[in-house]
Design a protein that fits this description.
By secondary structure, the chain is an alpha+beta fold. It contains three helices and five strands; from the N terminus they run H-E-E-E-E-E-H-H. A five-stranded antiparallel beta sheet has the order 1-2-3-4-5, covered by helices on one side.
């Protein structure tokens, strides 16, 4: 699972699919029907009920009520395994391939 998928479910949302641009129940409001979309490929989400849209950091900001980006990033890394550009995740092949490192969910 990608970090956004983990965060979505941890925060009480529900994904109604497992790849591509999937319908979802929003974790930011009491959602009896799927009112959001999560794009698994580009790691972005949108709630059509007005909660917002963005990436995992925006979701962390809204659920954890944290305005500071460094704090959002710390929470995302600690809880959901988000890695910043240039960092390597656990178990990633460390051979020098000449290609920039990309998170596994974008490969």
């Amino acid at each position: 699972m990608t970090p956004l998928e983990l965060a979505w479910e941890e925060y009480g949302g529900e994904l109604l699919g497992d790849h591509g641009n999937v319908k979802a129940k929003c974790p930011l409001h009491d959602d009896s029907r799927a009112s959001a979309r999560v794009n698994i490929d580009n790691q972005r989400w949108t709630c059509f009920a007005g909660c917002g849209h963005g990436d995992i950091y925006e979701l962390v900001k809204l659920k954890e009520l944290v305005d500071s980006f460094p704090e959002q990033k710390r929470i995302a890394v600690q809880k959901f395994g988000v890695f910043t550009e240039g960092e390597r995740g656990p178990g990633v092949n460390k051979k020098k391939t000449g290609k920039p490192w990309r998170p596994p969910w974008l490969r």
